[in-house]
Amino acid sequence: MSQDIDQLLERLIRPEIRKLSAYxxxxxxxxxxLDAMENPYALPEELTRAWLDSLRHVELNRYxxxxxxxxxxxxxxxxxxxxxxDILLGNGSDELIQLIxxxxxxxxxxxxxPEPSFVMYRMIALATGxxxxxxxxxxxxxxxxxxxxxxxxxxxxxxxxxxxxxNNPTANLYPEEELRRLIEAAPGLVVVDEAYxxxxxxxxxxxxxxxxxxxxxxxxxxxxxxxxxxxxxAGDPAWIAELEKLRLPYNINVLTQASAQFLLGHYEILEExxxxxxxxxxxxxxxxxxxxxxxxxxxxxxxLLFRVPAGRAAAIHSGLQEAGVLIKxxxxxxxxxxxxxxxxxxxxxxxxxxxxxxxxxx
Length: 362
Ligand SMILES: *Cc1c(COP(=O)(O)O)cnc(C)c1O
Fold this sequence. Notes:
Aspartate Aminotransferase, domain 1, 2 domains, 7-stranded mixed sheet, 4-stranded antiparallel sheet
């Protein structure tokens, strides 16, 4: 029987899917969770009560509003989406990456991204049948190598380029001028992924009208609502109309619509929390930089990338876990990330616990 299943899988599942491994999320129960760029703060008690009250009217027996009209209006307002641009909502921005890839895939179509960057670009490219092409960032500071990017554009003629702005997992923000040159030189679509916009205080949203090949992606995940799964893609109505054809009709469920709609009405709470995280990021950066044997890179996001002494990353990662702190191990994921770890900026208490656990391991 199991023999038969193996043969069936071998015959039926696409070979490129057989080669992939599913995205791994490590168990975090009981640990201080600093591995996934979540906002560490809960909502104020009073707001939680009002939010739960607002859900009383949600009709679970009905399909969601497929157009999400009210929610889109709220998102437009808090994210300052330029007049004349349309938005497409996704079940997280991961789903939007997938929709873009599905719309553009075909024989010899290429999805290109600087490397190292967000792993979903590569995973989704391979899963949807696009050829993936990485272009190395500069080794020392993870800056864009404009010549390498332009050469790769000429050579591979990418249907789409994904640029995380700021980049994950390197935390840096490329100069806007370099992105503009890339958009101008790109033969296809450029998607600027602004997942960390609340921490970067920089955006290309206002450039949307200037370039016919630019789309900007945002999410509420890093802002503090990761559990809702809600991302958005902003761009020219002609682009959005094409992608809309691939969106499954009810991809944003009723609880997400109602909750996001309510909580975006209290956006100032989320803004206060992100401002606090930005301040704590600078404190944590200084404290990490002072430790012997650590090299930490400057960050415009809500996490820090750091390098530990050669050959020690795995031991430090598991030592931290034994001490109750979960961060991300990056050694082995890309040559440029040798001996690197990534820590999310948590609450001051969590950051302190992380530093206390780290010191004896060095
Ligand atoms: C976290 C992250 C996302 C995923 O966002 P979701 O909306 O939670 O799916 C997208 N892009 C980058 C660069 C990220 O780091």
